[in-house]
Amino acid sequence: SREEMAEGAVLLRSFVGDREAELIAALRDIVAVAPFRRMFTPGGHRMSVAMTNCGSGGWVTDRSGYRYSPDDPETGKPWPAMPPMLRELADSAALSGGFAGFAPDVCLINRYVPGAKMSLHQDKDELDFGAPIVSVSLGLPAIFMFGGLKRSDKPRRFRLEHGDIAVWGGPSRLFYHGVAPLAEGNHPLMGPQRLNLTFRKIR
Ligand code: MD3
Ligand code: FE
Prior knowledge:
4-stranded antiparallel β-sheet, binds N-(carboxycarbonyl)-S-(naphthalen-2-ylmethyl)-L-cysteine, binds fe (iii) ion, transmembrane, oxidoreductase, AlkB-like, EC 1.14.11.33
């Protein structure tokens, strides 16, 4: 199904479909090279969400700030390449969401365990806000909080479930958003966790 959450923001329920097993296998290979890690914010807090990346860069944070880095700071080596299957999934979701020719160069992969959350924020470390962000949810369901251009705009809540893909472009690209603390649970395929992939064009 296709649901418009805001202008430019489209929720494609169960869009992963029969690509689920191949997607999970590709993620296992990425995480074997670049394991999930909990990073520190510039303010010195350790994030509850664990992260890794694939593609020509990866989003990192430490005491010195947020940035995209070509290398994994844990290993000093480049992030694993983005598997073509992931790139194709993101491209086809973007197209269904109304954005033809999406060319993501980075995929940030977030892992939530029960209690993990992401506070309200904007994604603005990328150079081209004309490109959407495509997000894929796997595992336990999450309550996604979707605000507006101002931090004070009251967020609306959407439940994101295993296999859902969302496309965030147009005016919604710079909307504040976050994830409420993950509820306990056990997903039949993914276990007691939620993964979220965000495909981005950073250059
Ligand atoms: C709306 N991740 O990694 S995905 C992030 O579920 C992030 O892990 C959340 O926010 C997660 O930055 C939310 C959905 C999402 C991602 C980026 C957006 C929604 C967005 C950018 C602009 C507007
Ligand atoms: Fe975000």
